[in-house]
Amino acid sequence: MPEGERLQKALAAAGLGSRRRCEAMIESGRVSVNGRTAALGDRVDVSRDRVCVDGVPVELEVTKRYYLLNKPAGYITTVKDTRGRATVMDLIHEEGRLFPVGRLDRDTRGLLLITNDGYLSHMLMHPSHGVEKTYVVRARGRLSARGLSRLRGGIPLEEGTTAEAKVKVLGQDAEGCLLEMTIHEGRKRQVRRMCAAVGLEVVDLVRTRFGPLDLKGVEEGSYRPLGEGEVRKLRDLGGGGP
Ligand code: URA
User: Fold this and answer.
1) I need a surface site. Which of 56, 118, 167, 179 has the fewest CB within 10 A?
2) Cross-strand partners of 60
3) Protein residue closest via CA to atom 3 of ligand 1
4) Which of ligand 1's atoms lies nearest the C-alpha of 103?
5) Does residue 242 lie in a domain region?
């Protein structure tokens, strides 16, 4: 009996799609084991071998875990802060290595995924998958019709113009405005910078949706595990695996 587990079985168990799909990835040369392109029939030791798909390492052994956190303001999105500031991981009371998917600014509130699935995290953050993120934005200043159309059509930022965004005006008065913005990029402080470019100063920013997920039923400062169906939907956003 040859040693180890069949590569396609290990990949499927790691959540990269059906066995058939994983076989197809191997056949098309996208999978490597310890730096060498894998072939159908290869077996792996899931605790030792280093397996990559399209050059991205895949964790084969660990049970994957996924949580949806409703982040309050005042926490930074990192696993550990060298300056001892509060991090989102201070809100997660679970054993084992976990990390946030992407980032929210310290003062941004709302939906943040926490996982130990490096592969899915990478896929969700990759610009090619364009996962939609929705924010409710309270801002000081008046949004003109021209400003609204610029927010929707693209704002030139230092690193290039933003992609089209969906923007709804939920309310506007003398103090400022309340907007709902859906973007599918993830640039640093993107919503704040887009708003600043049209003369708005963001005073509160909440991420209310991430792909198919929303904040329903999760109080600020608390979190819940994702259901299997939710994880499947997230994987589908990345094309059902690589
Ligand atoms: N855009 C921002 O400006 N900040 C965030 O935290 C998220 C999106």
Assistant:
1) 56
2) none
3) 189
4) 6
5) no
Task: Assess whether the C-beta atom of 104 lies below 6 angstroms from ligand 1.
Answer: yes
| Domain containing residue 48 | 5-58
Q: Measured in angstroms, how far is the CA atom of residue 158 from the centroid of ligand 1?
A: 16
Q: Is the pTM of this model over 0.70?
A: yes
Angle of helix 118-125 relative to helix 228-237, nearest 10 degrees, comes to 50
pLDDT at 2: 62
What is the distance in A from the centroid of ligand 1 to the CA of 195?
A: 11
Indicate the pairing of strand 213-214 with strand 133-140.
unpaired
Tell whether 176 and 192 lie within a shared domain: yes
Three-state secondary structure call for residue 91: helix
**Per-residue pLDDT tens digits for 65-121:** 999 999 999 999 999 899 999 999 999 999 877 999 999 999 999 999 999 888 899
pLDDT of residue 150: 97
The reply to whether ligand 1 has any atom less than 6 angstroms from the CB of 190 is yes
111 belongs to a structural domain = yes
Please check whether residues 199 and 141 belong to one and the same domain: yes
CATH number of the domain that residue 106 is part of: 3.30.70.580
- Residues contacting residue 73 through CB under 8 Å, at least 6 positions apart: 106, 107, 108, 109
Are residues 78 and 123 both part of a single domain?
yes
Which of these is catalytic: 45, 90, 105, 204? Answer: 105
